[in-house]
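pipeline/complex-builder :: batch 7 item 3
reading input block
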Amino acid sequence: MRIHYYATLREVTKTREETWTGPEKTLGELLDALCKKYGPSFQKWVAQDGHGSLAIFLVNGQDYRSLDGLETRLSPEDTVSIFPPVAGG
Amino acid sequence: MFGWTGTILRVNLTTGEIKKEPTNLKDARLFIGARGLATKILSDEIDPTIDPLGPENKLIFAPGPLSGTMAPSMGRYDVVCKGPLNGTVAASNSGGSFGPEVKFAGYDMIIFEGVSKKPVYLWVKDDQAELRDAADLWGKNVFDTTDLIRAATEEEAKIACIGPAGEKKVLFASVMNEMHRAAGRSGVGAVMGSKNLKAVAVKGSGVLEVARPEDFEKAVMTARKMIENHPVGGAGLRLYGTEVLVNILNGVGALPTRNYHESYFATADKTGGETLSAKYLIRPKGCFSCVISCGRVTKVTNPKFAGEGEGPEYETGWGFGADSGVDNMDAIIKANYLCNELGLDTITCAATIACAMDLYECGYITAKETGGMAIRFGDGETMVKLVEMIGNREGIGDQLAEGSYRFAEKFGHPEFSMSVKKQEMPAYDPRAVQGIGLQYATSNRGGCHVRGYTISPEVLGVPSKFDQHTTEGKPNLVITFQNLTAALDSTGACLFTTFGIGADELAALLSSVTGVPYSTDDFMKAGDRIWNLERLFNLKAGLAGKDDTLPQRLFEEPVPAGPSKGEISHLDQMLPEYYSLRGWTEEGVPTAEKLSELSLS
């Protein structure tokens, strides 16, 4: 699975993308694992009870809210893109 | 009187007469100010069928009742006239500090009529106003013009001016203020040039008071808090600017690429806000009373494209980036600087160049027509050269200066112009985002995103998430955004306050400033009224329901690759419901009943 990070998350994770080989089966599980790995400075941008409710998660270019939300199932060939809520224009 | 100053400055450029007249307060209450009120005056005073570059057009610089007050991000104004790019009513919105300065000098708007025999500029200092000779300024770019006029008037004067592009009546010439802020779209700069008006310089010492200071202070505190607490208005836009949208729109397969042939650009990341911040940003910048600071002060050091200034914004980064197939950020930013210097709308300029690239790649124009230049997607150097040629109307730039529709039509292929009503569509692909396609098709000035920015709900999920690929509920969504934006624009507020506040808070601010009680319903109704007023002008100018459409490419060529592969626009599923919800006939004409409801009959 490939994970792409954008905006502030690039500074937090120190990378633009990473290959993920963990056992997580859903988007929600993956986000929990990433929050554990990168800590509170990552969590604040994606936590659903805070600003993170405006974060955009794409699975293969499709917004998670048009799929199964945080229950969206993931497979090893998927690409997950995570955008913190910083954009407007 | 509060909010409105009660005085309009009227300048007859033919006779040189300058006079003051009272603002019509009945109209002010109904149409608020800026875009709305200036459009009402224009509708009353000109025949919508006149030649936009002829002497009968009027040019209005109009802030709103909130402009210049200490509510957050209230620095905006509109330049209003009949637009020469496509004959619609043009109200081009800009930030900076010029609008507030007009209010401080004591005016709700400055109206220019007629044509000056020789180049002039207007110098307004409080209640004194005079036309001055601009012979030494004619031909100078926006930056030099601004500096020279400040030296000749006052260092702190705010200057709105045209560059060579406006003087040469490029149909998408802009009016620039504070050098880098643009009243960009629809060619308002060309109208200014057609009147031999080089600039408007203003210095005001007035203090704006409000009707109900305690309510105003409360409303301001509330608005500030809501904007600052919003991740976009409060932090995001300052960090990355609007260019941060590049990777998001690309991520969902909605970034129009190579003149709308595709909607995914593989190297988009090189042209986005993250790259801009990392390599080119000097510091953020805000307009008058702004708490958001989305502006970018930037610099390019590469000697080939060296320069400094402000921007680029998202639409500019897209137009000179993905739409032209260019991923050289140095070239993109240089093109942006040149547009500001020459006074050109970045969206139409970039999209016109992209159209030329498309025609060239398909063999419909050749080196013979281009004077030996190869114009290809991805060629940043040629793209930058073309901006200069357009701004000065040189070589093929003279033809490109007419906009993509007339250019493509000249070479037998108008369908290559990615425009609506001859104004080029901005940076969101209607095949991938259904609602924005309806906005483009129905916007009162042609291809325009900002007056009905459904990207917010459809892609960003603000204030709530709508599926970008479906049509259900989109007509109502588009209408709500169009009405809200029309009212908001007319107050002098910045649209980005909506990352934080909404109609409730705007109505409260307007009420406490003016003393006129606007409920949220009143506010939205004013927006509906302004929208219909603009529609009426356009219908009288000769536009019709059949013009509410999109380029054929968006119906006939599905997106070939990327996250939105296979999609087309389903405008036909949305337009009839849009007309019906608006209270219009099936041909898109406001009914007598609707006009009466809005006090427009």
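note: Residues 520-541 of chain B form the longest helix (22 residues).
queue -> next item
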